[in-house]
Design a protein that fits this description.
The protein contains 11 helices and 12 strands. It has 366 residues and is an alpha/beta fold. The strands form 2 sheets. Strands 1, 2, 3, 4, 5 and 6 form a 6-stranded mixed sheet that branches. A hairpin with a 4-residue loop joins strand 1 and strand 2. Helix 2 packs across helix 3, helix 4 packs parallel to helix 10 and helix 9 packs across helix 10.
Length: 366
């Protein structure tokens, strides 16, 4: 009998779903495949205690299916806590489509994905994320009502990026208030990493406040376009983390706070729109030990969620702005609570979110 030995780099995949830390008690994971459109997608539904799971769909050219699965699990889990801490009656979910959004995406693929969403009967509500646009959500809307973030012409709230950026700006100002005693960002050096829709909208707020903005992006054309448009400095090196700055705003993909970068970071505040900025929980502890104020990403980037939630609750624009402005107060409360209890802001934020979920669960059991 041959003995099959699993190599060390594959041990983590021996239990590829339930055994992963990112699984974290997900309620449901749906694998979606359609040969005719070449659709390969995964929908993660983490928790529906507070309401239906709402979270955007990300289309990304993942290196492998394992990477896609881990990403959707991490993102779905994050949406649960984002909704809870923001006070919204929503659960957490997310979807990923495997493929290059520029070359693989077709209207037929989007409709087929919408059919899979529709089969869940409202347990999961989708929206746009990386690699997706408002027009894509309009196509999904053709086959399912369980989608938000559609164009204003179709009765939706439109592109959520501006509101996401506004929420990040509010969280950044709260972090500055906690760190410096004033939330005035005038003269502060802010490095924005990633100048897509959210990053660009954030730049507008920062410049209006009088901050000194430097931008970075792996897309050279996008970097130059945004740089020329707003007349801001471009960072073109390979080690942004070692640069002298007051505030680091990661607005691209997550896990930029990791073993390779954390000892280099010179910023005093980290506040950005990227999801899952901490590669591991221990990196939050390391930031705290360095005296760096970290504004929990799943809180301060919730403006986009608030924006699309307005479609479900039929809130007007002023109410959406008010809810997003409140990110400032919640961020400050969490930073103060973390300091008082000797825990990291991420731990304090998660505790607050979980307390709300547990309270609702207890109410449902009565």
């Amino acid at each position: 009998m041959d003995l099959k030995i699993i190599s060390s780099n594959k041990l983590s995949k021996a239990d590829p779903v339930f055994g992963q830390q990112s699984f974290d008690n997900h309620e449901q994971i749906i694998f979606c495949h359609d040969k005719d459109t070449s659709l390969k997608a995964i929908i993660g539904i983490h928790n529906t205690v507070l309401g239906p799971a709402l979270g955007g769909t990300r289309m990304w050219n993942y290196e492998n299916e394992w990477e896609a699965l881990n990403d959707v699990l991490r993102l779905s889990r994050g949406m649960t806590f984002k909704s809870a801490i923001t006070g919204l009656n929503l659960g957490g979910g997310k979807a990923v489509i495997i493929g290059n959004a520029k070359t693989h995406k077709t209207p037929e693929l989007m409709r087929k994905f919408g059919e899979f969403v529709n089969s869940l009967s409202g347990k999961y509500i989708t929206a746009e994320d990386v690699g997706m646009t408002t027009s894509d959500m309009d196509i999904v809307r053709e086959v399912t009502p369980h989608v938000v973030g559609v164009s204003e012409g179709h009765g939706g709230s439109g592109n959520p990026a501006p509101n996401t950026a506004f929420g990040v700006f509010m969280g950044m100002k709260a972090a500055a208030k906690f760190k410096y005693g004033s939330d005035d960002l005038k003269g502060k050096s802010v490095f924005v990493q990633g100048v897509g829709n959210v990053g660009e909208a954030l730049i507008k707020h920062l410049l209006k406040e009088g901050a000194k903005v430097t931008i970075a992006d792996i897309n050279r054309e996008q970097l130059e376009t945004v740089g020329n448009k707003y007349k801001v400095a471009l960072y073109e090196g390979n080690d942004i983390y070692s640069q002298n700055m007051d505030i680091y705003a990661p607005c691209a993909l997550g896990a930029t706070i990791n073993d390779d970068t954390i000892n280099k970071i010179k910023a005093q505040i980290i506040a950005g729109s990227a999801n899952n900025q901490l590669a591991e929980d221990r990196h939050g502890v390391m930031l705290q030990e360095k005296g760096i104020v970290y504004a929990p990403d799943f809180l301060i980037n919730a403006g986009g969620l608030i924006n699309v939630y307005a479609e479900i609750e039929h809130c007007d624009k002023q109410e959406t702005i008010r809810k997003t402005e409140n990110i400032y107060n919640t961020t400050l409360e969490i930073l103060e609570r973390a300091a008082q209890n000797g825990v990291t802001p991420n731990v304090a934020a998660l505790k607050m979110a979980k307390e709300r979920i547990q309270k609702r669960k207890n109410e449902q059991l009565k």
